[in-house]
Amino acid sequence: MVMKKLKPSMRENKRYLLLEGKFDEKDVERAILDFLGILGYSKSAPIFIEKHILAVNREYVDKIRAALCLAKKQIIVKRVSGSLKKVK
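Now predict its structure.
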């Protein structure tokens, strides 16, 4: 049995965050988990595309930014964009 692809309207819309500072991927994950909890983390679906580029669900961009501002390590969101090309 072959699964059908999702229609574009059914897919999650992602936004890409360009991060700055001295941090590790685990620091970002810990900051999001502390602020949003497990359910919020799973709904926001954060994925590291590159070393300093984080992809998140469109609806959770503001919450992710707040979580990173309250992190113990200094993590700065330099730019948010809907495409990878514009973030770089």
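Residues 12-80 form a domain with the Alpha-Beta Plaits fold (CATH 3.30.70.3250).
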